[in-house]
Amino acid sequence: MILLDRLSHKNKIFFASVAVILLVSVGIALVARWVLVSSLITRLEQQGVGIAGSVAEKSTTDVLDGNLDALNRLLLEESRVGNREDLIAYMFVLSKDGRVLAHTFSKRFPEALRHINQISAWQRHGIEQISFGDKSAYDIAFPVKKGATQVGVVHVGLSKGHVDEIVGRLRITFLGFISVIVLIFFGIAHWLSGYITRPMGELIRRAEEISRGNLEVEPVAHAGRGSHDGYLSDEIEQLADAFNHMTASIRFSREQLKESEEKYRSLFDSGPNPVFVVSRKKFIILDANPAAAETYGYTRKELIGRSFNELGPFEYGEWDHGASGDNLVGRVCVLSSRTRHYRKGGQPFYVNVRACPGFYQGREVVVLATSDVTEIMEKDAQLIQASKMKSLGEMSAGMAHELNQPLNAIKMGNDFLIMMLEQGRVISPEKLAQVAKEVSAQVSRASEIITRLREFARKADFSQENLAINNPVLNVVKIFGQQLKLQNIALRFLPGKDIPPVLASNNRLEQVFFNLLSNGRDAISQKRETLHQSAGGRISIRSYAKNGLAVVAVSDTGTGIPGDALDKIFEPFFTTKEVGKGMGLGLAIVYEIVVEHGGKIRVHSGTGIGTTFVVRLPHVQADT
């Protein structure tokens, strides 16, 4: 098979034609030989039967009279008539009791022939191939009859060697004829293969020119065949015509490709955001646009060949699970938000990264586009910080009340000590120790309150850590609890157990739950104003794990959200509160922080039935 693959198309056609001719010729030869040889042998056997029948008819009287000399002369004469001498190997006559009456053997009669080829009374004759000595023959037995009575048997032996010689001469003649026919067909196949492949050779020559980049080759002619009214008479002409169309199409496609490459290269080079082309497996930078070099502080030459991970991390495993080839086409692109990257020299900044799989110069790659969001994040942080300060301002009364309790206890202890000293009374060690411990405990309590306020008021950074979801909720409950108590609003927190940690910023999640509690408090206050009540209302917080997510549900019994406003509540500056009582940024900040952490937030509400916000955050994936 390998040898056939190395042959030219012309030789393949030639050898295929020759193989077909040989197979057909051999088949015809075998069939014809079998027919001719069978016919020849049958004809010789019929001739032998005729000779045996003639001898049986002429020898009837001599057999009955027992005239053995006459029988011998008859057999000798019949065996030498015409060309029978070479054909007939022997003749002999047997009586009905099996005695040899006459024969043509020059020597003693072979006794083995006496019992061969015996025929029954109902047979006209019998034919059997026999061997006697070193010779073989076709023995023909014919009965000698007088009326219906068999009086003897005539045996005529046709020489098998002579028959084989005739068959051999016939074979040689037939094979010679077949050989001449095959040679003629060989010549026709050779000419035909050349005629068929000559235009293909011209196509190959022009294809080689095209492969060298020469698309200006002249169109392939139809090798003198011509077409009739636009109809191409054979496949070669069709191939030549298709080749001409292909050449024109390639030339047109090449021009379009060049134009497209220039256009997209221009877009790639002039894009305002950094764009990288990196290898899919090792994440090596293969190309980068000028914006990438400018943003990251490297030259393009320094970027190419560098690992993209040196600039900053990027998780792309969501779609990189063994997909390859055409399976990459049309896959959903991956977005990584607010990732810390580094400029040349180690200066950090924050970017959003969008990655899409694709192909570049025949290789599977990832096309990465980054956008600097450092300034946006700083403004977000300022907005969040302003929201915190506003919230702390609103809680000032509650905080003052909460701080008053330990301060009053400390003052009472000090007043007691001053009174005892002024009266000159002796303070027992036990009393002094009790007062000191109580003062120390109240100082610790006040310090804890101030620490919680300071931690909450601290400007949030962008770092994330493995965090138990109950921690930021508990911190907010401690800060907000006194404020709600002063407003006669019940607060209940039901922390779930065995909730896997989330990757998050504690300070930013505190802002999420603080805003949700503030929103619930305002909804309850609005409901009271509507119903002219001064008490009542409850806020419940419940945390649990479900389907690989950490879930926190914050419910209130406030006025609820109208159905037509549910789709807008997370939009910046949208609010259902009265003018002057809210800017509409609280829930927008909540939504942004939750999405930033890869989570989702849903709301269930209706007018007059309260509201439930459900925050879902993904668990930290265990290393495998």
Describe what you observe in this structure:
Helices cover 49% and strands 20% of the residues. The model is unreliable at 223-232, 318-323 and 325-330 (pLDDT under 50). The strands form 4 sheets. A 5-stranded antiparallel beta sheet has the order 2-1-5-4-3. Strands 7-6-10-9-8 form a 5-stranded antiparallel beta sheet, with helices on both faces. A 5-stranded mixed beta sheet has the order 12-14-15-17-16, covered by helices on one side. It has 624 residues and is of the alpha+beta class. The protein has helices spanning 2-6, 9-58, 60-65, 68-80, 84-87, 160-211, 235-270, 290-296, 300-303, 374-394, 396-422, 429-457, 470-486, 506-531, 586-596; strands at residues 88-95, 100-103, 126-132, 135-146, 149-159, 275-279, 285-288, 334-342, 348-360, 363-372, 465-467, 490-494, 502-504, 538-546, 549-556, 600-606, 610-618. The longest helix is centred in the first third of the chain and has 52 residues, at 160-211.
The first-to-last residue Cα distance is 49 Å
The number of strands is: 17
What does the oligomeric state look like here? single chain
Low-confidence stretches: 223-232, 318-323, 325-330
Report on the biggest sheet. 5 strands, antiparallel
What would you call the structural class? Answer: alpha+beta
Number of helices: 15
Helix content: 40-55%
- Overall 3D form: elongated
What is the average per-residue confidence, as pLDDT, rounded to a whole number?
77
Biggest β-sheet: strands ordered side by side in the sheet: 2-1-5-4-3
What is the strand content?
15-25%
Rg to the nearest angstrom?
A: 57 Å
